[in-house]
From TrEMBL:
Species the sequence originates in: Caballeronia sordidicola (Burkholderia sordidicola)
Name of the protein in question: ABC transporter, ATP-binding protein
Keywords in alphabetical order: ATP-binding, Cell inner membrane, Cell membrane, Membrane, Nucleotide-binding, Transport
A GO molecular-function descriptor: ATP binding
Pfam families, per database record: ABC_tran (PF00005)
Domain of life: Bacteria
């Protein structure tokens, strides 16, 4: 695994920012840690980069404990953040000239390709650039030395959709065997390019899975029954956020299988007239799970 977190807890005095956080990121994956602002995403990344240390638990990057990352490990990690501070007094070209000697595997051909694509003004000072342009400079600097891991902390927040899409396409076109870890609260903007996702809410990981599995197994179900629905004493474990109104039943199914859905519902409620199963986007999935956690006192 490129990244592995096991039962991470982070406290700031009496405040518990993260609790029981466990996840893993395999080589070549594009893993998104998503959640609302304040959920603990940036704290997680700061611990990964050894800017902060966990209060409890183990966190490893490329097999090394995050607390013991060496310059060798850090030279294999690219980092881009929404709030990243770049040397504003330097011109774009001068900044890249400054960075280049620090990386033995800096790919000048890749650097030039990205500069052409992004149309970056080499003589302009970084402080005179728009937010989108500054993110482009940071991406060139983070990708040109061909890291094994690229960490993106809310990189597309507030950007024009066309700029955002261009940045995403550029990152993916140069990814090769790159592993990408991205944090975001803009769920739908990342849905099309991530392979795995973890849902973080109030410092706890609600769940994690591959996008492929989520797309296949999570559905919004609406059912018309033959008679008035009487809620069972115990709902099936895979049904969350259930509700009934007259003979109409609705719930989110987390283990959807089309061939057995009608019989599964009939086993609980009897006769079924009509069943509708709708796919859900990441935002809808996250808000449903977060609401259920809140209702359960989590």
């Amino acid at each position: 695994m490129i990244i592995e977190a096991r039962n991470i807890e982070k406290r700031f005095g009496g405040y518990k920012a993260l609790s029981g956080l466990s996840f893993s990121v395999a080589q070549g994956n594009v893993y998104a840690l998503i959640g609302a602002n304040g959920a603990g995403k940036t704290t997680t990344i700061k611990m990964m980069m050894n800017i902060m240390t966990p209060t409890r638990g183990d966190l490893t990057l490329m097999g090394a404990p995050s607390r013991k990352l060496t310059s060798h490990h850090l030279s294999q990690i690219g980092y881009v953040s929404e709030s990243q501070v770049l040397p504003g007094q330097m011109a774009v070209g001068a900044y890249l000239d400054y960075l280049r000697p620090f990386y033995s595997n800096w790919d000048e051909a890749l650097e030039k390709t990205m500069l052409r694509r992004f149309k970056l003004p080499m003589e302009r000072k970084i402080r005179a650039l728009s937010q989108g342009m500054r993110i482009k400079v940071a991406l060139v600097a983070a990708l040109a030395f061909k890291p094994k891991l690229l960490v993106l902390d809310e990189p597309f927040s507030g950007l024009d959709p066309l700029v955002r899409d261009d940045l995403i396409e550029s990152v993916l076109s140069h990814a090769e065997d790159l592993t990408i870890f991205i944090s975001s609260h803009e769920l739908n903007e990342i849905q099309g390019f991530v392979s795995n996702v973890g849902f973080l809410n109030q410092g706890r990981l609600l769940f994690e899975n591959s996008i492929e599995v989520l797309n296949a197994r999570v559905r919004k179900i609406r059912v018309t029954l033959q008679s008035t629905a009487r809620p069972p004493d115990t709902w099936p474990g895979a049904w969350i956020d259930p509700g009934t109104s007259g003979n109409v039943l609705s719930f989110v199914h987390t283990a959807f299988a089309e061939d057995r859905l009608a019989s599964e519902i009939a086993a609980v409620f009897g006769g079924v007239k009509f069943v509708q199963a709708e796919p859900m986007d990441l935002r809808s999935i996250f808000t449903t799970f977060a609401r259920v956690q809140q209702m359960n006192g989590g």
